[in-house]
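Researcher: Structure for this, please.
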Amino acid sequence: MTKTIAIVGAGPAGLTAALELQRKTPHRVLVFDADTQVGGISKTVCYSGNRMDLGGHRFFSKSDWVMKWWQDILPVAAEDNAPIGISYQNDSHEFTPSQITDPSNEKVMLVRSRLSRILYRRKFFDYPLKLSYRTLSNMGFASTLGVGLSYARSQLLPRTPEATLEDFFINRFGQQLYRTFFKDYTEKVWGVECKDISAEWGAQRIKGLSITKAIQHALSAAIRSRTDVAQKNVETSLIERFLYPRLGPGQMWEEVARLVQETGGELHLQHKVVGIRRVGRRIVAIDVRDASNEVRTVACDELISTMPLAELTRQLAPEDTGLAHVATQLPYRDFMTAGLIVKRMRSAHADDTSLGMPPDNWIYVQEPDVKMGRLQIFNNWSPYLVARPDTISLGLEYFCQEGDELWSRSTGSFVDFAAAELEKIGLIDRRDVLDGTVVRVPKAYPAYFGEYRSIGRIRGFLDEFENLYPVGRNGMHRYNNQDHSMLAAKAAVDCIVAGTSKTAIWGVNSEDDYHEEVGQPQKPLEVPAAA
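Model: Predicted structure, token format:
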């Protein structure tokens, strides 16, 4: 029996679900997105011939299924035509030169080396922190000794119960390292104190990382295969090589959208879902507003939603008004990127590349005297993102709240502000800025404080609807990477096709072995990204 399946959102979760449904079912698949392009936060924004990656998307996953799915869409290319090994949990495969796609083909994935560092006290620290001469020199002997003693104390006298993110950090890294590298940066990202954030955020993002793990990783680096892209048994923040679409992350999702449409699926951009119609606990239709402001009702048999949980709950109009209020209070952190094109950078370090450009993919800006959180160098993600090879394309990332002072600045004012901050920390001269733009992303990061404590009530209400499947970062109010969102979408399709339990959807990026803890030591020097 053919069904009509409506999908809200054309990001990684929505498009993965759409393509899987097209491949596995005869159903009519309709995808609606309010944006003018696909990809969600994983889209690639084009400005003056340059391409911007919002947040930085490394294409690697501990899921065999995800790695193969990506490579089926965009095959792997190698600039030097050398063999590339992709390792999986129970198998491995090596791409020989005859299997590697010509890199001159635009529809490919490049193999990229991963480098990111921390800028603190106007000095670069390795990320993750290493027991190297550079680290010891930057920190000084007294600080290094203090970190070691503080860590030892945290292991002997851990905080119990471990309820807050502050507890989580101190138990794994010690008080001094927490205050040096975690506290100020994390609070810059989230806008609240670590003691007000649930320890669950740490459990989902950095659960398996520890000083022990960082040392083990460094000792094994000499014998680890440099051709291992998937890196199944490597901690997320220790990944050294990854795949990356030649033209940015949005290229992946643009190609997926093309395949969805080629196989009969429908994609409707600039179409916002403004209402959900239900009979009891079953969805029967959605109301969709198009670019001309006309609203039409679309009947559906199943609904896969990536819209924010607050909006989804409101549209379902729960009988429990208290639940509706809780949903509206779910916290988010919004995000802005200032894209700058510069002639050169002025970072005077021995490992800088041409034009004074550091070799990093991104730099974590731990400096408390600027609001900038991270700096992306797009040239180092893919040279094909940059229109002119004699320029550098930068993304200055800021974490804010919609409507606050940063968010409300005009484009010109914000570009000037961002350029001044980058000059202040010694990385550019403002006179070298050629052009700039600003991209705002509302509800970029679901937050784990405030009414998040009541997320279980909302999930319970949504689970009562037999034909509703919330997936994706905002759809689940879970800080998912794009591979987590894809796995949740796959689980939703499995529910529709095979009638499996919706429990599998909520199990993605939860208390499972994705957090690299099964059969491995769990004792908590690594500084994880707070965003």
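Researcher: Any notable elements?
Model: The chain has a mean pLDDT of 84. The longest strand covers residues 433-446.
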